[in-house]
Amino acid sequence: MKEYQLAVERIEVNWNYCSDFIKNHELDAYQAKIHQIHEQIHEKTGLGNDALDWLELPLNYEQSIPVTKIKELAENIRSKADVFLVIGVGGSYIGARAAIEFLRPDNNSPEILYLGHHLSPRYINEVLASLEGRQVFVNVISKSGGTLEPSLAFRTIRSFMEERFGKDEARRRIIATTDGEKGKLKALADKEGYETLVIPDGIGGRYSVLTPVGLLPIAVSGVNIKDMLNGAQKAYEITSIPDLDKNPAYIYAALRHILLQKGKQTEILVTYDPFAGYLGEWWKQLFGESEGKDGKGIFPTRADFTTDLHSLGQYIQEGSRHLFATTVWWETEDDLVLPGLNYSRGEEGDNKSNHENDDGLTYLQGKSFHEINRQAFLGTVQAHNWGGVPNIVISLPEINSYYLGLLFYFFMKSCAASGYLLGVNPFNQPGVEAYKQNVLSRLEQI
Ligand SMILES: O=P(O)(O)OC[C@H]1O[C@](O)(CO)[C@@H](O)[C@@H]1O
Fold it and tell me: Residue 337 — φ and ψ, nearest 5°?
């Protein structure tokens, strides 16, 4: 490999700001291993191979996903609801929230609220209060159908809905997204006659954003889910090449693995847009649950720049050197130009009263915020690199559903390869059970 970047279909992975830490011959040495991993993923012969049904999902999505049904349900909800309540935790809500908050709901969208992702009574009370007097529709999402937080939230909301709308009308307003056969939620949905959407077998929560789990809420927000699936389809194409030097998902996996071998045990996903916060949360679950096992794995965390440069920036520049960053940079057309301040508080012609450069920022007048943000990004990756923090940069050309679908799939594919590079099963999460069992046994005693 000669360059420090790989651009395919306008997604670019750039490791220029890792050059003090990664030499391209080290990357080249991953070629054979990546070929082997590619085979394990695509032939489904590796660890956890029964959970790889997300892999080809975008390829013929019209066959594997009930897109028309999802769109019809979404249109019905959009025409009737003031509030759409998404109940779920982890992979059963974060992907949808990431897309909705990043792409921003359109004007015809109901307000979208989230429940079932924690147990705080203050929060639940506030959501309940905000439903009063409004038309409410509910999507309860749980693959297992028995996770504590969404189950408790759904019981609370069922009680509210049945009291408020009557049992019959309540059941017309509830959609359950769950397993096609098993689980308490499936049994309840059958008994009550709720509309159901099936989470395909062989797809774990954190790999499910492009299934009905994510697609119904995303469609309710007004996003074109076909565009998103088309983006994922393109990502399938460009990440289904076994060659490391042509496949951006494998490059990202190999770069992370090299950095881990060099003691960089913490990865910060950096974005420069506060609407990308849940995208970072989705990425955190994806990599955290997939890799953190058997005493291995990079600890994934996220930061929102430039905001967090004023809190974490000091540590990143000069603290313990166990960090690397992955910046996701998006081009945007949604820009704003820094205005001038051509006012005068005194008499016309009175030079003393000309305050237009009071803040010393007139040199930036007429410049766009996006360009200023870009300079902040470029200045920051360089400074952090000087401080011993390597930076991988992933760039995308536009903020839209197509490129978000592409990015979701890119990360999932990369994560599968990353897990195999580490030698772990990237599709299970046995460690989550310990806390769950412990909490449940305590709850039985209160
Ligand atoms: O969809 P479910 O079964 O409620 O699970 C929600 C989340 O909980 C976990 O099982 C871990 O607690 C995640 O892997 C999953 O995304």
Answer: -100, 140
